[in-house]
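quick one
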Amino acid sequence: LKKRDAVAILLAGRALAPAKAEGRGAAAANIALCKYWGKRNEELNLPITSSLSVSLGELGTRTRILPCAGRDEVALNGQPVAARSKFATRLSSFLDLFRPAAEFRFRVETDNSIPTAAGLASSASGFAALVLALNDLFGWGLDPRSLSILARLGSGSAARSIFDGFVEWHAGAAADGMDSFAEPLPYEWPDLRMGLLVVSSEAKPVGSREAMRRTRRTSVLYEAWPIKVAHDLVVIKDALREGDFDLLGRVAESNALAMHATGLAAWPPVLYWRPATVAQMHRVWEVRDRGLRVYFTMDAGPNVKLLFPREEEPSVRESFPDVQVVAPFGPEAG
Ligand code: PMV
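structure w/ PMV:
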């Protein structure tokens, strides 16, 4: 099954004809507390395991899409993006799935409130916002589940960015991926804070797709990963239900470390950490030993994301002067 076939199932005969002059969509970035790490189907971005994330509140992507002539045009944060760049070619090949006619071209204007260069999960909110904008432009009126599946075809973690708050992406088992979608979880933690620590804004040496493939194929530790995830998902959901922040933090930190450990045992090895990444991890452990309630997680890059409750914000700012604090449920919420 190709992406195109999955799109045909989801659109179920809906027209590929613009219903209005332009479409708009907005989506928050998300950070996984239990990671998506390994695909069972690389074409459809079908994961080996389920995963669970929290959205980043006001940090995310806003996208406007409209028909245009000649060739696809892409603007990122108000600047034109070169057609041959990785960013524009990835976008154009996704848009190929939705062209009303072979010669049809799109103009996409996208604004990221997350620093794109900092490698902080901008593809997740990017593809989610794009799918929402397409749904608006074409007037499909798709349900959230179908939108989540469409976003997944762009980037796996984008399936989760269709929703805000805590979100679970069900791995599913079907070959066509129709049961592999995200759903919001019914928990709100207005006091939850995340801290972004940008260690390096250099492009990552290995993309997540290649890192997952390599790890799955060559790392002896990968066998343990689905077992770890099955356990962590249960415990994170217990923690959410009981409002147990420290349990959530412990499991999220341990899950991230386990994910990175699988890469270390791959060949060629996958290690995203820079010396400054490790220094920040030690700093977290140090201040936690002194009683601060702070935990970390990390994705396919060198940057560190902190998790802490609102009342720790002054101490966290003191210990991590460069931290950017995010309130997933809104700054006024707590
Ligand atoms: O959606 P992708 O292909 O960019 O993969 C994201 C993988 C991680 O960020 C490392 C984990 C996750 O669940 O977001």
